Design the sequence.
């Protein structure tokens, strides 16, 4: 498609990014900015399109955000084009030259089953699509079952017993730990680029866990409305520097400051808050300290998370070390945000409540791993 209108081209660029155009109702849409650092409301009033962005407000033109919505509607109204657009992702192009002119060219079999072979019409090379499970001795269903059981709170010994009973697969518990490490690191790369739409209130709290046989502190920051877990970290101390690291990570993920941060009465929070959030400019972020159990505002949403972590920690009898602990808590964060439906959110995940709908389907683990490997291949 060729056009001399730069706003149309920028609208196409916005539309090409996942979850950048969201329908609120029949005539209202939320469109992320091209940089991904904000969003604007686009509305259709009678026959005219309106947008909150300065380009539309001051120049009275159809801005790139309006064009992104109109292009999205055009794709939806053309079923054939829309279906082709949805299916055309990075996994359907040549891994060597980037051409989409590829054809099926037979198949081969390995330990994980049948693998489709493709041939590129452009460069003539043959290849298979990387799905995140290449060169793995176990099949995807076995691996994702192990991951799901583990992050649901089942011990490693019981996981390998389950795999032996129901899949006829015998592996060591160290193998399952390697799967956890491999796929946690892979998913981390993918989800760090997903920008959640959060409310204006955050909760921060800490809990004690054992790492390497010694007590450590596990810190969390959670969005109040979506329950999206913004940040977590493990530290040996409970000092200002630790609380500052926590707040810095939360701000990096959210790409904004909230209206209020709710914490307990720990002095480290107060000092860290002043360093990371305090400003003389308005609007200012308010620090709400809960000094007593009877306070009207409470930390129930984050305490529920701590209960889930304690269940996992009890089964594990503590983490083996700080490095292993970091992998486990990162995996728990990904599972909590993107894979685990929450009763308090009417069966939805925090990521979906935060505007990130990954459409993972039935096997959520396998789907997110496939999306993650696609992202890794293109970076």
Sequence:
């Amino acid at each position: 498609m060729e056009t001399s209108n730069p706003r149309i081209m920028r609208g196409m660029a916005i539309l090409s990014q996942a979850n950048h155009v969201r329908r609120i109702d029949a005539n209202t849409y939320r469109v992320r900015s091209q940089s991904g650092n904000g969003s604007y409301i686009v509305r259709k009033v009678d026959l005219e399109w309106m947008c909150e962005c300065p380009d539309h407000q001051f120049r009275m033109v159809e801005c790139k955000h309006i064009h992104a919505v109109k292009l999205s509607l055009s794709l939806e109204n053309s079923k054939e084009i829309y279906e082709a657009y949805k299916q055309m992702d990075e996994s359907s192009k040549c891994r060597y030259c980037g051409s989409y002119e590829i054809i099926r060219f037979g198949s081969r079999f390995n330990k994980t089953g049948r693998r489709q072979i493709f041939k590129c019409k452009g460069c003539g090379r043959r290849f298979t699509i990387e799905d995140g499970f290449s060169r793995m001795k176990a099949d995807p269903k076995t691996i994702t079952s192990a991951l799901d059981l583990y992050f649901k709170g089942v011990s490693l010994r019981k996981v390998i017993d389950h795999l032996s009973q129901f899949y006829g697969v015998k592996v060591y518990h160290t193998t399952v730990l390697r799967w956890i490490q491999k796929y946690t690191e892979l998913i981390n790369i993918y989800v760090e680029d997903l920008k959640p739409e959060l409310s204006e209130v955050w909760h921060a709290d800490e809990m004690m866990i054992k790492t390497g046989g010694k007590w450590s502190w596990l810190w969390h920051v959670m969005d109040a409305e979506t329950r999206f877990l913004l940040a977590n970290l493990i530290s040996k101390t409970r000092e200002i520097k630790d609380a500052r690291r926590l707040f810095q990570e939360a701000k990096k993920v959210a790409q904004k400051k909230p209206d209020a941060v709710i914490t307990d009465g720990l002095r480290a929070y107060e000092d860290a808050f002043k360093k990371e959030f305090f400003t003389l400019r308005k609007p200012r972020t308010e620090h709400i300290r809960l000094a007593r159990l009877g306070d009207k505002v409470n930390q129930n949403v984050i305490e529920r998370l701590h209960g889930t972590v304690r269940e996992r920690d009890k089964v594990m009898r503590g983490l083996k070390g700080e490095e292993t602990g970091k992998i486990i808590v990162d995996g728990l964060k990904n599972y909590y945000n993107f894979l685990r439906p929450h009763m308090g959110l009417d069966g939805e995940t925090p990521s979906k409540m935060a505007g990130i709908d990954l459409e993972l389907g039935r096997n959520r683990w396998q789907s997110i791993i496939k999306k993650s490997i696609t992202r890794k291949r293109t970076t």
User: Anything to note?
Assistant: The first strand starts at residue 21 and ends at 25. The two ends are 25 Å apart (CA to CA).
